[in-house]
Sequence to fold (442 residues):
Amino acid sequence: MSRRTWANWARTVRCTPRYLVHPCSEREIVAAVLLADRAGLTVRAAGSGHSFNPLATTDGVLVDLTGFAGIENIDQDARTVTVRSGTSLSAVSAALLEVGLALPSIGTLAEQTVAGALSTGNHGSGFKHPALSGLVESLRLATADGTVREFSRDGTPELFRCALTALGTLGVITSVTLRCVPSFNLRVSEHSESLASLLERFEEWACSAEHVACSWMPWGDTVTSRFLVPTEEPATAQAARQRYATTVSEVKAGLIGLSAGLAPHGVPTLSRLLADRSAGPAGYVDAAHRVFTFPQPVKFVALEHALALPDVPDALNELRGVLRRAGRYSPYSVLVRVGAGDDVPLSPAYGRQTGYINLTVPRSAAFLELHRAVETVLRDFGGRPHWGKAHTATAEVLAPRYPLWDEFQRVRGELDPQGRFTNDFVARVLGPTAPGQLLERS
Ligand SMILES: Cc1cc2nc3c(=O)[nH]c(=O)nc-3n(C[C@H](O)[C@H](O)[C@H](O)COP(=O)(O)OP(=O)(O)OC[C@H]3O[C@@H](n4cnc5c(N)ncnc54)[C@H](O)[C@@H]3O)c2cc1C
Fold:
């Protein structure tokens, strides 16, 4: 343990906890929670710090789970994998591949920890695919009183659902069992069309492939869709190169972002100058986990809201108007993804088929105003902000957007009656802890 500074991936958030703990066992995690209790400090769990906001910070006890990693068990018959909570999604995918299994859907990044991803509602894109939490069979949670409880969908449904996406406020997740599928390849194809034509048939587009996403530079009228379809075909020769094409365009956006900090109105011109006209649309086959993700060397800040699927076309049209009137743009495209609804009280996809609208901006202060303008539009359309991304919402704004908000708060009050698992940011987005009655025994 030592008094050192912790920073998130984007280097936009820092904290200097009294105790920075790197547990190597479940017992050490429990010890860290009890240390906080004895010292009257708050305690927060941190994964790989890929959240863009101060969710994981504390000046009390910070439990850094990145060293608590590894596969505990793979059950090939049941098709499940049990992992320590600090295991990265990339490590899970690599271990599964060796035994012919895979996760059915993940987001664009694989470096975050399983528990951090679950806790913030991490998702990929696919009309039939819920967020990562939809794959969880059971999890173990070290709670404020120093006990470790196991929650599962069958055994303790309410506690289980609440613990799946809880922003680290119910305790420290120590291990997670995830459902898998046989490993599979995906065929990637791209198609460009006008934004207007895609929005006209948006819901049909959303279910036009197993995984669909589209990106759009808001100063233009063209949108590029990416379709991923499971296939029996083997990986194609140029797959590795194609995968890095996205990384290259992110690096270009990062470079434009550096200069655009001085001249934010010049983004469209710079982007056109750097556009790679030799590159045609992507078309290749590769293992699913390599298709979903790509290496991301550039630091940025992202904002993302989950909207009811039918609201997405109007929200994008409104966004276009607002951005064009302001004449300011990010060098990164607006990314639109889709997902199934779920029954997790704090999931941004709770209870509805969801369209996710993401805007990434460079870290420069020059782009803050742009983020605020976009957030206002998405909030007016009933958007629920991604818990791990940048946003300014408070508990007053958020509570009415989550029908099971009170159920979650009741469970939170029971599992953490003294409010140990909190910080200023958590207090802003969830409000204070309210002790109450536990509904289920675990
Ligand atoms: C480059 C990049 C790409 C991204 N792509 C996507 C994407 O495609 N889809 C998407 O949905 N999101 C995406 N995100 C957001 C990011 O994946 C999530 O915010 C995720 O939470 C980060 O996981 P982490 O391990 O870094 O958690 P952290 O950021 O370290 O922590 C996040 C939260 O989880 C809690 N937590 C962490 N570990 C535990 C634990 N063991 N027990 C209890 N609580 C815990 C923390 O207290 C905190 O509240 C992206 C972020 C970046 C930087």
